[in-house]
Each structure stands twice: as structure tokens, then as C-alpha cells.
Amino acid sequence: MSVACFALTRGEVQTPQHTSPWLYGPPDARWTVTEFADLECPYCKTYTPVLKAWVQQQKDVNLQWHHLPLDFHGATAVHEAKLAECAGKLGGAPAFWQAIDQVFEQTRSNGQGFTGQLDVNGVNHQELVACTASDKQVALHISQQTEEAVKTGITATPTLLIRDNTTGRSIKLEGPADGVLLLSAIDWLAQK
Length: 192
Fold this sequence. Notes:
Blueprint: E1 4-9, E2 13-18, E3 23-24, E4 31-37, H1 42-57, E5 61-67, H2 74-106, H3 125-134, H4 136-151, E6 159-164, E7 170-174, H5 179-191
Parallel strand pairs: 4-5
Antiparallel strand pairs: 1-2, 3-5, 4-6, 6-7
Helix pairs in contact: 2-3
């Protein structure tokens, strides 16, 4: 569940500041599917919308994003991760997921990026650009997520980690997994 805090900015105006994790689906779901992804990954670009649609059909599953911008996609992947993270910080989980969708819709992938800009509901474009360019917390968060993934042996995107929020047990699936495989993994975890 994202939490809103308020930070003073120019002229005593209060701007909400939301915090991750960015969940898609019911926040109290028993199962969390964490997608380790790169916004320049062509496989993630085609798979993430399919995964989101599957999660939307499940009553007790949510989706959590974990940034893993791959080195060979360069600064473009990191910049896009900052855009999405800043959208979330400024507008909460719905803004974060809208930014993810827009980046995937616009990017040419494989480090080529996109031209134009994101148009995220409820997020001021200038604030998004300023956050992306200079928010050190956002940059640190993305760097930490990348390091965490590598420390746990995750080096390819997309990779999924399915977690039973009741028992804490989890299973890792590498590559795009269809609904049948996801349900099989959940069944396997439930029976352990």
C-alpha cells in the first residue's frame, strides 16, 4: 500500500509524496507476483500487459514491480525507471502503473527509448521532469533494487518471484510465465 506524505515546495504549496512498493491489484492479497523488469526489455514490453491482465482476473493476487535496468540498455533504461518511480512518488500507485504502460507503449526498446513525454493523470509534467533529473532518493532506490536483484541471483528480465504472503515462501520463475504456469506455481507453494 502506498503512503502519502506531504513535502513543502515553492511558496508553501504541499505536494503529496507517495512511497513504494507499487502494487497492482488488492493490497491485502495472499499472493504477490514481483516482476523484475527493465523498461527497455522487449520481452517485458510484450509480457507486462499480459501479466497485468492475468493479475486483474485473480481475486487474491497482486503485482509488484522491481526495477532491474540492464547494463546493455544503458542510461535509457535507468532514465525510464526514474520517470516511472517519480510518477509514483508524485501520484501514487495508479500514476506509477500508468507511467509503466506509457513507457512500454512508446519505447522502441533495446536502449533506443522514446521521444515525446509521459502524460500521467494527476502528475504535473514539470514536477515529473524535475524529479527524474534530480531526485537522489529515486536514483538510490532504483540502484538498490538492481543490487538486491543481482544479490539474489536475478540477472535477466522478466523474472518473476511469487510469494505466499501468509507463509513467506516463494518461488522464482525466469522468463514470461503464462497463467497456467503461474497458477501451478501458486498451487505448489500452497501445498508446501
